[in-house]
Amino acid sequence: MIGELIGRATRRAVREGLKDCGITPSRSLEERLEERGISFDDLLDTAEEAFVFHPDSSSEEGTVDLLREELKKWMKDVNVGSLVIGGLHLNEVGDQGNLPELPAKDFESDPVHLISDEILGMRIANYINGEKGVFEFERVDRSKPGILKELGPFTDDVVGGLIAGACSRVYER
């Protein structure tokens, strides 16, 4: 009984402390990524680096505007946000060595038998733009442009899925 009371009091105190620091449960995906050192500009720069410009498309500046628009749109989608937040959490769990049968030192190397990170990235890209999004995810995941090469196993794939989905939508436009 005393343990349960201590647990409740601790949770309440942590929630209040987080609120005092400006961290609330309702914060946006953009804010959650920023907390992990990933700015919107990082996402846009990475999308721009990943994007394959076609000579018949709009100007490079116009294309960047389209990329910005697509990223902003999809970052506000509850399903994309849920999948990205899930990947961010799994990355934290893996960093702590708390994924079943995968010690932290092995997790850091992004072992080939860990495929759930790729599945999350592909599902995000697929949700945003179907098979075209998945095709683009495969290309982006192999090349690891921009900030992707600096991120952990789950984070690089969920962010890569978002970027790939946005890029493939711009290709269609």
TrEMBL record:
Gene3D superfamilies: PgpA-like (1.10.3760.10). InterPro entries: PgpA-like_sf, YutG/PgpA. GO terms for biological process: lipid metabolic process. GO terms for molecular function: phosphatidylglycerophosphatase activity. Residues 107-170 form the YutG/PgpA domain. It comes from the Archaea. This is YutG/PgpA domain-containing protein. It comes from candidate division MSBL1 archaeon SCGC-AAA259E22. The lineage of its organism: Archaea, Methanobacteriati, Methanobacteriota, candidate division MSBL1.
